[in-house]
Amino acid sequence: MRTAVIVFPGTNCEHDVVYAMEALGGEAEIVWHRETSLDDFDGVILPGGFAHGDYLRTGAIARFSPVMSEVRRLAENGAPVLGICNGFQMLCEAGLLPGALIANRDLSFICRFVDLEVVDTDTVLTRLATQGDRVRIPLNSYEGNWVDPSASGRVALRYVDDPNGSQARAAAVANERGNVAGIMPHPERGIEDILGSSDGQVLLESFLQSLVDYPPVPA
Amino acid sequence: MTTPAGPVHRTLGMTDDEYESVVEILKREPLPAELAMYSVMWSEHCSYKSSRLHLGRFPTEAPWVVVGPGENAGVVDIGDGWLAALRIESHNHPSFVEPYQGAATGVGGILRDVFTMGARPIALWDQIRFGPLDQPKNRYLFKGVVSGIAGYGNAVGVPTVGGEIEFDDCYSGNPLVNVMCLGILRKEQLVLGTAGEPGVIAVLLGRATGRDGIGGASVLASASFDDETEEKRPSVQVGDPFEEKKLIEACLELYERGLVVGVQDLGAAGLSCATSEPAGRAGVGMRVDLDAVHTRESGMTAPEILMSESQERMMAFVSPDKVDQVLAVAEKWEIETAVVGEVKPGPTLTVSHNGQVVAEVPVASLADDAPLLDRPSARPGWLDDVWSAPASLDDVDPVDLLMKLLDDPAIGSSAWVHEQYDHMLFLDTVVGPGSDGSLLRIKGTEKALAVSTDGNGRLCYLDPLRGAARIVYEAALNVAVAGARPLALVDNLNFGNPEKPEVMWQLIETVEGISRACEALGIPVVGGNVSFYNETAGVDIHPTPVVGLLGLADPMPSNPPRLSRAKEGMEIWEVGPKPTDNLAGSAAQRVAGKALVGRPTAPNPEMARRLVNLAAELAHLVPVLHDISDGGLAVAVAEICIASGVGAQINHVAPGAMFSEDPHRFVVVMESGTNDLPVDLATQVGTIGGDSLSLGSGSLDLSNITRAWREALPSALGV
């Protein structure tokens, strides 16, 4: 089961995501954004960073990359698709997740550990977690403030405090089907106690498990 | 002595004597493009003409040094086939003129110095110094610089894992913005700034060349500030972290695939430096065609193209058969390229523009024939008075003084700053900002690198010899409490106007102090930078050397000491020589509102070695190890209490000893009964527990000191 970790010019968390996936027993490979086929992959992660320098608007240019039509195809087929930080912003721009991410309420970059609460466990990101559980992982963003005028997004994880003004205190959001998820904090930065927390493991393990048995067989 | 180009060379920051030297070298009047090249290459910033004579004092050799001073960055062997590259730089003057871009391009420049060597930059540290925050201009500069570091560093994708902050009146008209970068590389991937042999092609990579930063090295970095500083704004470059990020990845791919002979970044002196330095190192000549250079605007003159300091550019030297592959890698990463020249036999650098030769100079003369000045130096007459003034504090209430210290923006939490920086990228930051030294693991090995950057302008003002040695010893102790042994040092020497004999004396004493401390610790100086003319309206800054010390933890402690690991019932020990009541240059002296007087306590090389070794061993055994520095024992224990969320009782200690910053001392917190500390150095000074910090003469609520410490910087900034 292989995960494509997509790299755009300006992406910077790709090696961290590959490291974390491999540390948890998964198989992940870096794929350049001009790639036009993801046939060999079972799922996709769009890692964090500053794709195209965040110029124009976060994720606004990345959504036009050749690889994105493949990401859309996989998402529509029910394969696990996860956007982390900048990747979350891209999924919103691409219309694969509802809403958009705007500047933090205090107009300041935030890099620190935050506490999250598991709200919905029926997503590729949270299915091995328990509702109500707390997860402590690092946040690292300037545009982390999720707004969703349609109020159609499913909140998978929410901030215990409110660091950035995000609607419904949403830290992670999924589509209706649960196979596409975006998370603003970084689960890959929370997989080892020596770096401050291993709470992020359950999130990436949920994704890895989803590679095996998604899409769910219709009843 | 007037010459036709006389006024022009002065505008470019050149003296009449220097102009005459150029005429002598060329045996004729220089052409405009030639004059431009000499003016930037011979500037203080590029040629180190005032300091070079004295920098030879530094010890630079050790068996693990791979590349010493003189290249773009120092490189040391850290074992297991890995090398570490490190460098420190200043961007003081640009940051005063335009704080955001000044700080941002400082980050960009130091990164290029490191990835030019073949290394992937893995971490940054920023050392920033400003005037007091009660002045609006200083708040503006401080916020602008922090935003610039965050804006560039975060987007370029290199974590900023530490640094330091100092405030003093002397920096009001001249803030100091220094930045250090560390990179790692596999041994076989080392690249040098050489042009190679005749036939090699010069390929310019990165952003188009524009009119920004023209004369930055000569006009801005090598002159003092006055009322016309605003007019120098066009000399500040504008950075683009996205271009730099692509340039890093493209260059690393070129190195991995072995496609380049050598690489040189374009920083100060731009194309002038990036052609003449690599050619000079290789002992070859070069032909450069300015018509091939991709420019951002039309109509740029040859001098402008040669002097431009436009950011995010690199010069790659490539064998002719590999040029196509290099261009393909650049195309993949979406960076612009231009084939601008070819290496030639012989000693001449020939530059053409609009089809005509605009410069024809001996390559070596640009770097090697730069003026070397033996400027007069003199010990300041005022030092005797300053040294004889009393520097002890008898009339202060320790509890009150501790509260003032914790409420000070330089001592209180730096979270407002470092939480704006991505300090976790790459998953290496085991010990991050807000600690004595940073600890970065090297994945796939048992090892970790520790770095501490330290400076102390007040100490060095009172005694540059002792002060400079003490910042080296402090940095060494900081990496030791993270579990590492000192390995190598880089220094950034921020000074006033070198034309003043007192400033030269301060420089010479500082170099001596750093050298002696490095010799005592057995570590080499592998690189550095000198920033002169840090004065405004004739007033010089305190001599402010800043050092960056790299240490190696082998193996890394499995559970490194942290300030947050103190628990109820643990014992607090002070380890090191008995402190005196001399508070010369201390934070206590400053916060108590006393004059900056006295002579700082001398360091002790033997003690330094012993305590560094002891701390590096203890880091594998005890939960908390903390260097005693700003604010002395009292602040060190308070910081442990705040981080651990538990109080402490400190036994009665004389106020002098409570706040002393005498060198070679640290605090150990450990379970009671586990003491294995050397009896001649260790004293139990208290116990962890409760919800207040008691100093014997009185106590403070943990919640109150925590709030004061957290709010100190934000409230001083009014945010």
List the main descriptive attributes of the protein structure presented here.
heterodimer, A: 219 residues, alpha/beta, Rossmann fold, 9-stranded mixed β-sheet, two-stranded antiparallel sheet, 26% strand, B: 719 residues, alpha+beta, 7-stranded mixed β-sheet, 28 strands, 35% helix, globular, disordered N terminus
What's the CATH H-level homologous superfamily of chain A? Class I glutamine amidotransferase (GATase) domain
Strand content of chain A: 25-35%
Taking all residues together, what is the mean pLDDT of chain B? 94
Task: Please outline the major beta sheet of chain A.
Answer: 9 strands, mixed
Taking pLDDT < 50 over at least 5 consecutive residues as the criterion, the unreliable ranges of chain B are 1-6
Order of helices and strands of chain A: EHEEHEHEEEEEEEH
Structural class by SSE content of chain A = alpha/beta
Report the CATH architecture of chain A: 3-Layer(aba) Sandwich
Kindly report the oligomeric state of this protein.
Answer: heterodimer
Major β-sheet profile of chain B:
7 strands, mixed
Distance between the ends of chain B:
57 Å
- Kindly provide the radius of gyration of chain B, computed on alpha-carbon positions and rounded to a whole number of angstroms: 26 Å
Low-confidence runs of chain A (pLDDT<50, min 5 residues)? none
How many beta-strand runs of chain B?
28
Strand order of the largest sheet of chain A: 2-1-3-4-11-10-9-6-7
Shape of chain B: globular
Q: What is the CATH topology descriptor of chain A?
A: Rossmann fold
**What is the gyration radius of chain A calculated from CA atoms?**
15 Å
